[in-house]
Design brief:
single chain, mainly beta, four-stranded antiparallel β-sheet
Length: about 120
């Protein structure tokens, strides 16, 4: 059974870069049929899809955040990461790493990590 675990700072200052890592166990991030996704949920808002990296390393981003978002991976460590630049308090949210069984079946979720943007 695959397990995902987010890791990163809980507090980031405005204008800085938010960096999170997702550690994956029980399944390879380079395996076929799956992609690896970042999703967030802000207070009072629904889920927001941020970006994805596929088994061949292709990346796709939410158009509204594309200029600030980067998803990468380390196959040897079986982990993938999120970077969100120039953060503002609006980026305060719980961030989830998620496995997607293509297409559009988000079948395994990390527990989520709270990130607060504040000075």
């Amino acid at each position: 059974q695959v397990q995902l675990q987010e890791s990163g700072p809980g507090l980031v200052k405005p204008s800085q870069t938010l960096s999170l890592t997702c550690f994956v166990s029980g399944g390879s991030i380079s395996g076929n049929f799956y992609a690896w996704t970042w999703i967030r949920q802000s207070p009072g808002k629904g889920l927001e899809w941020l970006g994805i990296i596929t088994s061949d390393g292709s990346t796709y981003y939410n158009p509204s955040l594309k200029s600030r978002t980067s998803v990468d991976r380390d196959i040897d460590k079986n982990q993938f990461s999120l970077q969100l630049t120039s953060v503002t308090p609006d980026d305060t949210a719980v961030y989830f790493c998620v496995r997607e069984l293509l297409p559009s079946c988000f079948d395994s979720w990390g527990q989520g990590t709270q990130v607060t943007v504040s000075s």
